[in-house]
Amino acid sequence: MSGQAPAAPRSGLEEQITQWRRWVLRRSTITADDAAELEDNLRGRVADLAAAGLDDEEAFLVAVRRMGNLDDVSREFAREHSERLWKQLVLVPDTPVEGSGRRRDLGVLVALAIGAGIAVKLLVASGDVEVFLLNAAFAVLPFLAGYFAWSRRLPARVAALLVGVTVVVAVVVNLYPYAMEAGTTVPGTTFVLTATHLPVALWLLLGVAYAGGVWRSHTRRMDFVRFTGELLIYFALIALGGGLLLALTLAVFGVVDVNVEPFFEDWLMPFAVPGAFLVAAWLVEAKKSVVENMAPVLTRVFTPLTLVLLVAAFVALVTGGPLAAVDRSLLIIMDAILVLVLALLLYSISARDPLAPGRPFDWLQLALVVAAFAVNAVALAAMITRIADAGWTANKTAALGLNLVLLVHLVGTGWLLWQFLRRRGTFDAVDRWQTSYLPGYAAWAAVVALAFPPLFGFV
Amino acid sequence: MHIDKDLVAASATPLVLGILADGDLHGYAILKRVGELSGGQLQWTDGMLYPLLHRLERNGWVTARWGVSEAGRKRKHYALTPAGREVFSERQAQWDVIAAALKQVWDSLQGPTAHGPGLAGAFA
User: Fold this and answer.
1) How confident is the model at residue A325 (pLDDT cuts 50, 70, 90)?
2) Which of chain B's residues have a Cβ under 8 Å away from the Cβ of A45?
């Protein structure tokens, strides 16, 4: 672009502009397109100043000055394009984070991870599986919340509120007199519902700490969504590696006939699993600039595959004769499919540049929404009459309720995506719908975890 | 004249929307127009215009499309959308209220102080 400037006196200017462009592009919140736009401005300004009698050198200097402080400008770009901000750790390059700060950060995290390990170990030591299942989230998530509270200097009022809510919920769910399955020592459905829905509610509560108390902010919520997706991937990777390591260790000790399994079960796992979880969280926090986000890349791969799965499921449901076995397991499968589809949508939306025009991939996503909706509608229609006949158990109500909560999210996303692709709406609206809907999940999970046991007589 | 930062920020959106209501423009042309309209008094930091334009675009008030400048370089042109036109007329109404109120304040102050009581009496 700059190499072959024809006239000799101009080449100096071209050289300067090229250097300036490089300097601008070093800021990761400014893309090549933004730089081109700024450069066009710079050239326009230089040309006008030169026409007014300044020489190239002077005109360039004045034009650069008029452009403003690049740190401020790139910060402004970052504020406007939060999806770019996510990819970089520091707002402005060339101000390296002091190594000691990073180390202290890690030190706090390791201490918290050990704390979580001790809490989990105490739960395991209680020897009661139900107590463990009900409280595992309480043993780990507060430590992660503590890390966020520390790293984001959470206001004391918000911290106190979070601790208060968590303590009340913990006391309430542990005091509930859950009934056992008739004639066994297996806990009933309301216990299972509470144990499965509670972590979701607590996770979204953790989002308040993640957002540093500013939980109403759209961008903070979106960051929490990104954080969640990346955390799952990191945790899965660490778990895979750790599992391989454990298997090899077991095999080696097996050869020499030393049984290390009790040690693994009693001591290693209670510390390793929560530890891996917290380290994964720290990695997501620390790596942002190091690699491109992984979740959106995975969504690219799995969106078309999931669409194929949904079309196949739709054909199977419609042509496969009467839906004989429609019961709660089908409902749960449908819920799982909707969760998968929404996760795919959410993570690609969270990484998408909201200014980019409609692309084929957006249409693919819309197709995914429509297919998921069609499959779900067929299954739901078959099930609702049966459920109405057989009566509303806690389990079916929870599964159906979740289905509706997911469906509203899906239909809203599909509608806004359709509006966007027809140029009737903006992608920003799609974006905001996602984060506005998040509290809906927290509310539903809290209702199932806290209100269902008393409503259904603790069975 | 130095103009207060908050005032510049508050007037930026209606100014850009109003300038674009007149026709599509690229970024630097918008800046030049701002200079002309204010007789050179209002000088924005050039770089700050672009994040603002991107925000207007995200809100769906303007659309952008890449074109080519006279010199054959990439250049982004901005155009007002119907939604942007609506926002602009809303803003216009708001600013009219503010301008009218301010004008009354100026007038009531200027009456006695600037011209003195005698002159004011002579005009009445």
Assistant:
1) low
2) 28, 46
More confident residue, B12 or A351: B12
d(C-alpha A195, C-alpha B71), whole Å: 66
Strand order in the sheet with B25-26: B25-26, B74-80, B62-68
The minimal CB distance from B27 to the residues A41, A354, A429 is found for A41
pLDDT of A5 above 60 = no
Task: List the domains of chain B with CATH numbers.
Answer: 5-113 (1.10.10.10)
Model pTM score: 0.72
Residue B44 is encoded by which pair of tokens?
Answer: 């924005």
> How far out from the chain centre does Cα A357 lie?
24
The three-state (H, E, C) secondary structure of A281-308, written as one string: HHHHHHHCCCCCCCHHHHHHHHHHHHHH
A271 phi and psi angles, rounded to 5 deg: -95, -35
Q: How far is CA A386 from CA A4, A176, A390, B124, in A?
A: 76, 30, 6, 87
Q: Which of A63, A60, A78, A76 is nearest to A12 (CA)?
A: A60
Percent of residues in chain A assigned helix, strand, coil, to nearest 5: 80, 0, 20
| Dist. CA A225–CA A82, nearest whole Å | 13
Structure tokens at A281: 């969280």
The CA distances from residue B54 to A33, A258, A267, B81, in Å, are 12, 65, 54, 14
Domain residue spans of chain A: 8-80, 99-287, 295-425
Residues from chain A contacting residue B69 (CB–CB below 8 Å)? 40
B60 neighbourhood in chain A, CB within 8 Å: 425-426, 428-429
Query: Of chain B residues 85-124, which have a CB less than 8 A from chain A?
Result: none
Cβ–Cβ below 8 Å for A67 and B58: no
pLDDT digits 0-9 by tens, B35-88 = 899 888 888 889 899 999 999 998 889 999 998 888 888 899 999 999 999 999
Cβ-nearest to A41 among B43, B46, B58: B46
ipTM of the complex: 0.81
pLDDT tens, residue by residue, A427-447 = 889 989 999 999 999 999 999
**What residues pair up with B67 in beta bridges, in sequence order?**
B75
